[in-house]
Amino acid sequence: MNKNNTRPIGCLMVLLFLAGSPILGAAPIKLKVTAELANIRLKPSISSVIIRQIAQGEILEAVRQEGEWYLVKIDPDESSNASGYVHESLVLPLEEIPKTDRKIQVAAPIVKQADERPRRTETAVRETPAAPGGERAASAWSFTISAGGNYAVGGDINKGAQGLADYLGAQLTAASGTTVPPARVSFMFGGEAAIPLASWLQITVGADYFSSSKNSLVSYVPGPVTPTFTAKPQFQAIPISLALKLHPVEPFYLKLGVAFLIASGGYYFRYENDLFWQEWKGDAKAQGFGYFGGLGYDWAVSESVALVFEALGRYAPIKGFRGTGSYQDSNLVDPISEDGKLYGYDAALKGRSAVPLIIIRSQKPTEAYVENAREATIDFSGVSLRLGVKIKL
After folding, report:
1. What angle is formed at CA 298 by the lines to CA 88 and CA 207, rounded to 5 degrees?
2. Pick from 252, 244, 318: which is nearest to 284 by CA?
3. Measured at the alpha carbon of residue 364, what is the angle toward residues 362 and 365, in degrees to the nearest 5?
4. According to DSSP H, which parts of the chain are helical?
5. Measured between alpha carbons, how far is 84 from 106 in angstroms, rounded to an integer?
6. Alpha carbon of 4 to those of 9, 10, 12, 48: distances in Å?
7. 326, 322, 336: which is closest to 375 by C-alpha?
8. Strand 59-66 and strand 110-112: pairing?
9. Which of 25, 154, 222, 346 could form an SS bridge with 158, CB 3.0 to 4.6 Å?
10. Distance between CA atoms of residues 87 and 67, nearest Å
């Protein structure tokens, strides 16, 4: 062979050897597991499958670091995986490796099933969460206490208050300022417990409470005396919820569920005109189901505490309210009371459109001026915005 031809090849081999020698001679990275159990994943992603779990205090040997992940060597088993990725928040790099004869411990072996898919013989154990921004698992039991604001439509309970104001105004020769602000916005608080089903899925059980009321005064101006109308519609509920909480992309989550509402609603109306006055009262209760869904943000501030921001939408119109209503005026000695259902109906006005009213009656209203009598609906549909503190157990 020509010596001139072999010289470039020889130089190239020397350069490759010199370039590769630092890599070949580089010492592996020694890592100590600081979490209770460190998940070794197939790929450098929080959503990747867990192929091994290493106990706290064990030493791992890393080949290299890729961003926030270390590629580490593991003993191959039935899964034939000889390496995997561990997040940097679960381990501590060491300058020197402590001398130990112990073998790496794993949480549970992996066995092959008939369909050749690996399955753990035990339920996945809790993974210690990392600091904010690091790898976090949704596989721990937790309890959340939250508070915030709630908006609900109200339904017939608000329509009845406005309708009676319009009805009384129509009886007068002149009327103005008959707008009755509805009861809709309220404070809300509650709590929920979350039970892990998978690292990305939880089932939650919770209960909340909210109560809304609005006290307003309407003044009519027909003549020398100013008649007034006082209205106070109100409703409250305790939703007991069961939901699925999904973590498609950390730290965000989706929540979908059903709620059983223990609800109540009522009204107080009073009309005054000089020496004459009329008063209507009513309180009723019912139960029913609703549905909700929304989006949340779960921000870990420590290993066991997180802040939760949540926005939910709810659909929950409820019928079948039963209770006691009463009527009294300045000409009666005692009020007239009646037990029954909360009804909604339209009261016909001569020469004007019918107005919606509500009343508690033992029987459905059938008076001549009554149209479209029905069971009243209090609509708890709406939205809620909440801030909570989650404690991981």
Report:
1. 140
2. 318
3. 105
4. 3-25, 156-171
5. 14
6. 10, 10, 14, 53
7. 322
8. unpaired
9. 154
10. 9
Task: Give the model confidence (pLDDT) of 267-283 as tens digits.
Answer: 999 999 989 999 999 99
Q: How far apart, in whole angstroms, are the C-alpha atoms of residue 201 and residue 255?
A: 10
How far apart are alpha carbons 283 and 302 in whole angstroms? 47
What mean pLDDT comes out for the span 231-258?
Answer: 96
CA distance 321 to 12: 90
Q: Report d(CA 244, CA 259) in Å as an integer.
A: 12
Summarised one tens digit per residue, pLDDT across range 309-348 is 999 999 999 999 999 999 999 999 999 999 999 999 999 9
> What type of residue is 1?
M
Distance, CA of 185 to chain centre: 18
Q: Which two tokens stand for residue 19?
A: 């370039």
Report which residue type is found at 163: G
Q: For the chain, which domains are there?
A: 3-120 (2.30.30.40), 142-392 (2.40.160)
Alpha carbons 199 and 259: distance in angstroms, whole number? 24
Q: What is the DSSP string of 286-336?
A: EEEEEEEEEEEEEEESSSSEEEEEEEEEEE-EE---EEEEEEEETT-SS-E
In whole angstroms, give the CA distance from residue 153 to residue 149. 14
Whether the upstream peptide bond of residue 251 has omega within 30° of 0, thus cis, is yes
- In which residue are the tokens 């590769």 written? 20
Element (H, E) at 272: strand 252-273
Residue 117 CB partners (closer than 8 Å, separation 6+): none
Separation between Cα atoms, residue 182 and residue 167, nearest integer Å? 17
Average of pLDDT values for 280-309? 95
Give all strands (DSSP E) within 36-75, no chain letters: 37-41, 50-55, 59-66, 69-73
User: What's the pLDDT at 307?
Assistant: 96
Structure tokens at 378: 């209090």
The secondary element (H helix, E strand) that includes residue 356 is strand 352-361
* CA separation for the pair 267, 274 (Å, rounded): 23
Strand ordering across the sheet containing 83-87: 50-55, 37-41, 83-87, 69-73, 59-66, 29-33, 91-94
CA distance 184 to 213: 7
